[in-house]
């Protein structure tokens, strides 16, 4: 029976990290003073399952630490302790520590024991101090359910006296239940009196050591509600006769009790027999409300929408195969159009169905890879909270559109740039509270994140209502660093553009948060690499806004196919501004070399694709071919091609899988006839062309 | 199939390798058959800009993009016309950055031969159009001399842009 537990480790870690994320999110939503019991429940369940899991897998440090957390949470859950900012902070730190510990276990590294011990001590201290709510809780909000605390402090009485008759069936042990554990657990939630009923015990020679002959009558004085008591016997369900009855507590004064216990006051008549709990709960004997409470109680977390874990590799394989299918299908369609005769009609209608199905299949597979951007956004509430705390600023984070979906590959790469932008907004954007007050703004600054779909791309905005970009300071800094000439005059947009240059930072003081000047240029580069753009809008004194536009996926691109000589190339639609035909005389020569033409509001150089790629074109006369005005990295060029062929969505394949990077080419795709067409990398192409001109 | 595998195992056990031989002009070359992915007829390729002249372009090989190298051009032999009889051998090379597939254009495929390890002789410094660093050795098989190619050395740098042997 040697099961290698190690095989479950990965799943455990993955689940735990996810659970910790949800715990963190719940903690951040937790309102000091008026906590929602449901949130505390969520948090508690996470801690509980991590504790259980790590104990099972022998990660005793994690289990021990989580146990302390759980104790604290249990106090919160039972309303014996108030949720204060201090407590939330402690719990957030605990999330970090648990994450660190699990990560250390995962990588088989040593745990930072000191840090763990320190925090564990703090937690224990917080638990110990729970009876001085005044000292521990400077909570400003009036607490509605504050009643139990003084009741608890004065300790005149408890809420309930539960009389429990617990008569296990002989097979109780077979299912791994331990009555001792249950009794111990009961003794933890209140004052327990135990009476053993050993009448059924046979003589020693007849005793079967694997059967349970004992029964207990227990009396429990506690604040805990019925479902808590019931919960202790959860696992024994079906293995015992259990009766839980409430008896009047032998103290007259108990006015606040009803508030403390979420369950309604039960009458002695309200008996739930767990052994057949289901029917009992379904048709409550006398008190519908009470029965409902029992039924709803524990397992809210178990009902998560059906989902499975699939490795991205498998999805990529699926994507590849579907891509192939699309190609084969279009080959068949082309072939099918050549058939004649009476079966041809049937063939074509079959092919049309095939095409529709294949498209749907492709879209579905694409959707599998799409995730809501909340995966990236979820880290920000915590980050903003920590940062603003450290900087002494009041910052509120507003996130909208966090269900906007985008491809996983894009998601993985957008995280860091966004972190940087949000950090900048908090650090540089939002002013200190007194500055804000002096400027007539609310003391609490707002940082907002917004995501939405726009055309075939996703736009993410990061903004703040802070000071905005200071043009004069940017200019001064840029001159100091010789990024621009002393007398150059720049438009607003050009000035804002400066902050994206390497080695530029206007923070008066370099903090460890931001200001080293390595940031914005990296942000822009990362976004460029994804095929996206970033722009800045800013008003001095009102705030700034960074607008990032990204492709939804890196796997597919909308392209325009163009012909040059015998070759076909794909130009990403997003880079194309306009296609036009030049008339004779519209082209001017600069210094007898470069050709330029007037387009909208400026001169645009002509780049002859056949020259850059060394091809034999159909024509070298500019007016006989077509000019496609494309833009890359802010520069426009007129790309001279023979002809435009058509627009299509193409699946991007890497040239680097079997070959190497080629300048001016971002990848390749397979056309309907099975031939390969190269996809142009417009910014790269412009660079190559400029170098050729300069040489 | 099973027989073939068994034969290979026998051959390997006897210290011999199976080689696919092909011709370029009058010369016969051999490559380890375990490196051969498939053999297919000539079809037009898509050119790649800025590639070395012997890298003709890329082909779609069941969904992956595979570069095609003209071995005649690689070895500075007289250029031959591509006809439907021209053959592309798809090989895989081990490069420092992982496995790469590529196709070589040759005049024709001849045979699969068994070459015993001790039949392979080191190549002299002259006599072939190929610089000897790309030749693992020479083998005489039924009166013909076969040049055994070290394709990792020969093609690796071309298709990956990373030199296998910095000194070379």
UniProtKB/TrEMBL annotation, chain B:
Keywords annotated in UniProt: Cytoplasm
Protein name: Chemotaxis protein CheW
Matching Pfam families: CheW
Keyword Cytoplasm appears in the UniProt entry: yes
Start and end residues of each CheW-like domain: 16-160
SUPFAM superfamilies associated with the record: CheW-like
Any one of the GO CC terms: cytosol
Gene3D superfamilies (alphabetical): CheA-289, Domain 4, SH3 Domains
Cellular localization per UniProt: Cytoplasm
Single GO biological process annotation from the record: chemotaxis
Gene encoding the protein: cheW-2
